[in-house]
Amino acid sequence: MGRDGVPRLRLVGLADDDSGPRLCRGSGEPLMPAVKAIAVFCSAVCRARHWRR
């Protein structure tokens, strides 16, 4: 939590293995290979929709 009392997002490192495609936490769709290794959502819209729930 930040100094202003607002919760902050924490980036979670994902293991880089060959167990299959990485999936978006919001929609469950596979992440594109070009996204950063620390990405967990497929888009900013999907991330916002997930955190509003």
Overview in brief:
This protein is an all-alpha fold and 53 residues long. Helices cover 17% and strands 0% of the residues. The protein has a domain at 23-53.
Can you offer a commentary on this structure?
- The chain is 17% helix and 0% strand.
- With 53 residues, it is mainly alpha-helical.
- The protein has a domain of 31 residues.
- The chain is elongated and about 40 Å long.
- The mean pLDDT is 79.
What structural keywords apply?
53 residues; mainly alpha; single chain; 1 helix
The Cα radius of gyration reads: 13 Å
**SS-derived structural category:** mainly alpha
Overall 3D shape: elongated
> What is the straight-line distance between the termini?
19 Å
Number of strands: 0
- Series of H and E elements: H
Q: Number of helix segments? A: 1
* Overall average residue pLDDT: 79
Secondary-structure blueprint:
Blueprint: H1 44-52
